[in-house]
């Protein structure tokens, strides 16, 4: 379907970003990372199939939002399960607060509840809507590395089994 073709860049950008976060955390082999990225792309494609509206890019944005916030996003969890990573392990590897918006023509993310929103991918929309000036996001480039330093509070409680 044409929608599927349109989503390809956005989905691969989002999957590559999460994969990069896992790679930066260390301890996962390249083969596993490649498998994770492909599984996540497939899960996203399936999840977004009927929720992708290039003519109304913000329509369905909440549905497409990938979120880690004391709960693991099910799509990331599913892809991680394919390479044998538990949710507990994911919470150690990924930022404890991550929001990733995957919309037609734009993929952006925020680490932390009040971090700045950083754009990973942006393409001009048909019809030439004016996009944000570039200066406003140059500071974001390496912010995801710093996001790791915030203590992942109260996740250790989840691993305790009584």
Automatic annotation (TrEMBL):
Protein name from the UniProt record: BTG1 protein
Q: Which organism is it from?
A: Bucorvus abyssinicus
A Pfam family annotated for this UniProt entry: BTG
Family per UniProt? Belongs to the BTG family.
Gene Ontology cellular component annotations, sorted alphabetically? cytoplasm; nucleus
Protein's GO biological process: negative regulation of cell population proliferation
Residue span, Anti-proliferative protein domain: 94-113
Q: Which InterPro entries is this protein grouped with?
A: Anti_prolifrtn, BTG, BTG-like_sf
SMART domains under this entry?
btg1
